[in-house]
Amino acid sequence: MNSAELPSLELTRRALFGQGAMGLGALALQSLMGAQRPDPAAPSLPHWAAKAKRVIYLLQNGAPSHVDLYDHKPLLRQRHGTQIPDSVVGGRRFSTMTGGQTARPLLGEITAFSRHGQSGATVSSFLPQIASVSDELCFIKSMHTTQVNHAPAITFLMTGGEQAGRPAIGAWLSYGLGSESEDLPAFVVMTSRDKEASCGQIFYDFYWGNGFLPSKYQGVKFRGSGDPVLYLSNPKGMSQSMRRSILDGLGQLNEIKLQAHGDPETATRLAQYEMAYRMQSSVPELTDLSREPKHILDMYGPDVLRQGSYAYNCLMARRLAERGVRFVQLMHAGWDQHRNLNTQLEIQCRDVDAPSAALIRDLKQRGLLEDTLVIWGGEFGRTPFLQGDIANTRQWGRDHHPYAFTIWMAGGGVKPGITHGSSDEFGFNAVENKVHIHDLQATLMHLMGIDHERFTFRFQGRQFRLTDVHGEVIKPILA
After folding, report:
1. Per-residue pLDDT tens for 345-389?
2. I need a surface site. Which of 131, 154, 301, 370 has the fewest CB within 10 A?
């Protein structure tokens, strides 16, 4: 036994309650003050007036094909079936699925493109609802990244590092800005996948992890079935008053431990117990859709009432945003069309099209879009050349492509109805106004009122930040 623990064991009952009262008083004061405060150890934030108060990240796991959905390249159709020039490929690295493939015939888009809105944005026929809100969107068609496989690419996108162990964006924001909500976590994660389960991607916990930040800043995952959060309901035979009494006792004991050792994980336990107690009433109200008007439910599509679907999660994202949740990370898998581009891409688009557009409309009509930043996109794009045999149309596919891809953003201080950057005529390389992953992260931070170069955390003898030692704010897209 650690000798430092002995004084705690010798406490009288009177001393126990006397010392523990300070911790309970602090918790009560925090509750009375309303919102969850930023960590007192964090730098003074925000650095300037924020354009966005919250972020909803619609992460399309597996990587949507930019050349089939947003980045129209007529040359691909004109030269369909011919070899992509070696001068374009230039010894670039690909996944093992096409790394050894010598024939790389260009594959024309499998969808029809048309222009939409006053902005004239080019959007695929597979995404008619997103096309209908294109004047609210800012398309970035010059994204590029460093990784060619899913897990490291998503990790890089969400944490700024290719290897697990760094805090996710939502954890950084929770640490630095706290939450506007008293009864819900600052950082919530929801996952969904295509109903056909066409790809075997895994949602790793480190995609929303706290890394080297205290664990209270990790994302809270809402489950796709049953209780949204495990152990939220009281066990049979336990009343709410009994639970409150138990939490008070645990709080006193944990406060003594915290005073004795100063371990931040003890403070995390204190905060999580109290949050779980408050969520017992806030989460059932959050997930009760009975008061949502029928026209709102219809706007999100037929899957909106199916818990765990993308449509349901989009509606939950809006409800979380209006309740003050700082960062909502919605992840939807199924975009990995290596051998089923002609069959699965349209199905995947159908699942996400109406809910994504409905979220934009819903936020706007409630006055939330102007200070809510919405981001839609994958971890990379898809190759403009074919994976597989061009004669076998049923198994057409595209490999992972980090050298150029498209995302879109809306609200939260971003100019609507514009396109920033471009790829080359093949959709292979980003060539104009190139945007790196760290640039996107720096811009997100800027819109939240944070200078990404000044917002750091000391760990293992050095100052870490989300953008590592890179990243520039994409100023042309700022409203």
Report:
1. 999 999 999 999 999 999 999 999 999 999 999 999 999 999 989
2. 370
Residue 178 burial by Cβ neighbours in a 10 Å radius (0-12, 13-18, 19+): middle
* 116 φ, ψ (degrees, to nearest 5): -140, 145
Two tokens, residue 39: 């960590």
Mean pLDDT of 100-109: 91
- In angstroms, the CA 314 to CA 369 distance is 14
CA-wise closest residue to 157 among 447, 436, 349: 436
- 19 Cβ contact partners less than 8 Å away, ≥ 6 residues apart: 11, 252, 255, 256, 259
> Which pair of structure tokens corresponds to residue 76?
């691909």
User: Taking residues 224-228, what's their average pLDDT?
Assistant: 83
Q: Which ranges of 287-340 does DSSP label H, i.e. alpha helix?
A: 294-300, 310-322
The answer to whether residues 52 and 411 touch, using CB atoms and an 8 Å cutoff, is yes
> Are 377 and 143 contacting, i.e. CB atoms less than 8 angstroms apart?
yes
Angle between helices 264-286 and 240-261 (to 10 degrees): 150
Domain with CATH 3.40.720.10 in the chain: 44-228+291-477
What is the C-alpha separation between 95 and 328, in angstroms, rounded? 30
CA gap 243, 281 in Å, rounded: 13
Cα–Cα distances (Å) from 479 to 134, 249, 362, 437, in that order, read 16, 51, 21, 20
Q: What is the CA radius of gyration of the chain?
A: 24
SS3 166: coil
Cis peptide upstream of residue 228 (ω within 30 degrees of 0): no
pTM listed for this prediction: 0.88
